[in-house]
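A protein record pairs a chain with a discrete description of its three-dimensional fold. The following entry can be read in just this way:
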Amino acid sequence: MNRDNDLNVREHSGDLEGRVTIALKEIDLLKKERTVVKTADELESLERKIVAATNKLASALIAQKLQDSIDSVELKGDVVALVKSHPKRVKNQGIRDVTIRPLRGEPFTVKATYFNQKGKGKKNG
């Protein structure tokens, strides 16, 4: 991995950490907020706020954990073994953004190494 890609991944990891921190602060504000629920509509509104905040936290934590896993030494060793065991040659295309849509929360992007199969190219004729 070249230095620019390494720096890009580290900056991205910092962004993911920031998302977790922001989501935790939002939940903390909701927790500290003095709320008196008098009607069903107020309860529904409060529930929506809490669900939205916890979904943001879930998404941010999943993104952070997934990026940490992708960057781990153990996974890098597994990737090398997988590439070597592949029946056809593959080429490392470098770091790419991959968007994940979790069960809960907002979609997020992680950075992962992208491989593709080497081909002979198009034949004319």
